[in-house]
Amino acid sequence: MKIKQGTLVYIDFEPSKGSEIRKRRPAIVLSRDEYNLSSNLIIVCPITSTDKKRPYFIAINNKSLKPKSKVNTKQVYSLDYTQNGGKNIEIIGRITNKELMNIAQHFMLNFNFRLFN
């Protein structure tokens, strides 16, 4: 299976502990294609349909998702997408490059990297 950046997938997030996201749910693949192909891993942010309002929840509209879905850019996971990983991954769609860039910008707010002096 080839999974590309910007792909919407369903993933089993169990087992989880503490504040980690739970259950089978959609997620967006943020990792670049080269990373995915060379490592059998994907980096994802889960998608929720909660009514809660948080600055790190980014609205996303896609026919493959429930209405009012939001990407949780605060929870980031690197997961084995192969059958051996046991996450039961199913590709359900794709998002636009504009949506991907918006999500990526919010995702980067998790970090405080000094890129320039």
What characteristic shape results from the CA principal axes? globular
Distance between the first and last residues' Cα: 41 Å
Share in helix: 10-25%
Count of alpha and pi helical runs: 2
Major sheet: 7 strands, antiparallel
Strand content: 25-35%
Low-confidence spans: pLDDT under 50, at least 5 residues? none
Output the CATH class name. Mainly Beta
Averaging pLDDT over every residue, what do you get?
A: 90
CATH architecture: Roll
| Count of distinct strands | 7
What letter string, H or E per element, gives the SSE order?
A: EEHEEEEEH
Q: Please identify the structural class as seen in this structure.
A: alpha+beta
Domain count: 1
Radius of gyration from the alpha-carbon trace, in angstroms: 14 Å
Within the CATH hierarchy, at the fold level, what is the topology?
SH3 type barrels
Organism: Staphylococcus marylandisciuri
Keywords: Toxin-antitoxin system
InterPro entries: PemK-like, Plasmid_toxin/cell-grow_inhib
Protein name: Endoribonuclease MazF
